[in-house]
UniProtKB/TrEMBL annotation:
Coiled coil: none
Species this protein is from: Mycolicibacterium neoaurum VKM Ac-1815D
Lineage: Bacteria, Bacillati, Actinomycetota, Actinomycetes, Mycobacteriales
Catalysed reactions, semicolon-separated: [phosphate](n) + H2O = [phosphate](n-1) + phosphate + H(+)
Protein family according to the UniProt entry: Belongs to the GppA/Ppx family.
Residues spanning the signal sequence: none
Superkingdom field: Bacteria
Name of the protein described by the UniProt record: Exopolyphosphatase 1
Amino acid sequence: MRLGVLDVGSNTVHLLVVDARRGGHPTPMSSTKAALRLAEAIDSTGKLTRKGADKLVSTVDEFAKIATSSGCSELMAFATSAVRDATNSEAVLARVQAEAGVSLRVLSGVDESRLTFLAVRRWYGWSAGRIINIDIGGGSLELSSGVDEEPDVALSLPLGAGRMTREWLAEDPPGRRRVAMLRDWLSTELSEAGSVIQSAGTPDLAVATSKTFRSLARLTGAAPSGAGPRVKRTLTASGLRQLIAFISRMTTADRAELEGVSAERAPQIVAGALVAEASMKALGVETVEICPWALREGLILRKLDSEADGTALVETIPATPEGKRR
């Protein structure tokens, strides 16, 4: 089965095309991205602007056609923090349906956390024991802990890297005082969540997912993406502290020149590093292992599982030659 997974995030829209079957390893066939920065298109009233909605509709329409031309039998389309937070999300979703022919489902933060945990569990297997996972998105931070495929605890907090950049680190480069203030604030904000996660049980493995963590690991010496997904990559608290001291003094343009940091990720990598540091501290973790699977893979796995038991988490859209839903 060839599936398309369309992920509408706070920063980017990402289409992943995979060949998948129940009991098998989903094989990526192609990946297409567009940087829309939807979170920055939210106006003072909390609405996604007309310009932002226009970009979203046209991008979803284009990517749905790519999915069709790639041979996808179905397209799973979902949106996370930016669309979830918009006060006019229902109107925006209706436009996407009417003009692009795609039913875009908004995932709750807790569902993001649960599905990401499922992907992590499948990647590491039962022998990993209790896993805790940290995932940093543009708008939210997800934390989870469990010994099964369904986590015992799944949390979502509005502490994404993009959100923290907009709210705390507007200057370029950010001043030392603002970095210190955000560090202290994050420590306070994560105190309760950290206690909840830790109370679920002592982890046998601490894991991190998301592009933010992959970039941070690369900046602290982990293998490049070209080395393949099965190369072990880790991020340590000490390495992260040293990295923050270095990149927080750099401009966005300079950070974009670093290997492992994309142009769209460069503006928010400092905030992302501070959220990562605070999360690891709150969970009492000194080292995290970087998992190549995350939310998109979790959705694929849940889709394959639902095929067997007749349930559905995300509505799937049969692909047509025009890329429209019948």
